[in-house]
Amino acid sequence: MHYSFIINSTAGNNRSQKKWEELKHYLDSHNIDYHDVFTRYSGHATELARDIANTSTDNEEVIVAVGGDGTIDEVVNGVMSIDHHNAKTNSTPIAVIPTGLTNGFAVAYGIRKNPIQAFQQIESANKTTMISVGQYHESIKDESGFFVNSLGIGFDAALISKRNSKKRSSSKMGLLTFLISAGGVLYNQQPFSLMLQEKHHHQLFPNTYIATCLNHHVRGNKQAMHDNLFSSNIQLLVVEHHNWLITLWTLWLLATGRIAKSRWANYYEADKFQYTTTSLEFVQKDGIELGNRFVDVSISSAQCQIWQNSSFNHPKCQFKLEKC
């Protein structure tokens, strides 16, 4: 097996480089067949993954994303954006060495935080595992793509936009700076109108504060998060603005993974959603800022190949779980 590592050395507040050096020492000392390439700008991992998948000549290639959720997102989009008329479409599996701050996908799939242990989960795999990822098409800009965690409109996307602007102006964003920014976004974020279509059902939410499609839902239970990755359904969470006390309480439930149980949250699960906004709103996917735009988006799921054992013993996993 040959491994192509795509490394975002700036992930995890620049701690990714140290983790990669630790893993590289392991790879070299164990004579692992690999090559490595570093990303240089936003979207570069997508280009690199697409090139590797297109030029791979055998079935012994694995593309390994070394970074956070944004890096994984870009690698998945690079592999899965290959022309569907190409016989090699999505034939190259991916794997993950999580080096970000939150690593939502790695937690859901069951990937170790330690880079060497995460690679041992890759090395011990003997076949691919098929999981579901989110797939979207935005009609206004005629834009298509994939996401591994979430695609969000509203507060979470505005907060990511604010965070990114702070990062561009300073080398590191501390907790206090983040909380101040979050408070500013919370105060300034205005409710917006969202029209949802799910099958033949239409519903208008006139005071939407958050609208997030989820590939795996945080239910305060890691096993449940993992199970969602093997479902063809997508989850949609819509939170409307009420008074400030209710809004703050709802955001706290969202942050602690208990939002689906809240009476103030609208939670849906289906194989396809379509929704539109009538105003310019911030949009994000997997923590990647997509800008301020009108939205008319259709969301479903697609199959993605993973070459990596999981720490969960899921009955639908297509491999025999081995200890790492």
UniProtKB/TrEMBL annotation:
Q: Which domain of life is it from?
A: Bacteria
**Which named protein is this?**
Diacylglycerol kinase
Entry-linked SMART domains: DAGKc
Instruction: Please state which protein family the record places this protein in.
Output: Belongs to the diacylglycerol/lipid kinase family.
Against PROSITE patterns, the record matches this protein to: DAGK
- Keyword Ion transport appears in the UniProt entry: no
Keyword Kinase assigned: yes
Q: Write down the required cofactor(s).
A: Mg(2+)
Which ranges carry the DAGKc domain? 1-139
Please name one Pfam family that this protein belongs to.
Answer: DAGK_cat
Q: Name one GO molecular function term.
A: kinase activity
Arranged from A to Z, the UniProt key words for this protein are:
ATP-binding, Kinase, Nucleotide-binding, Transferase
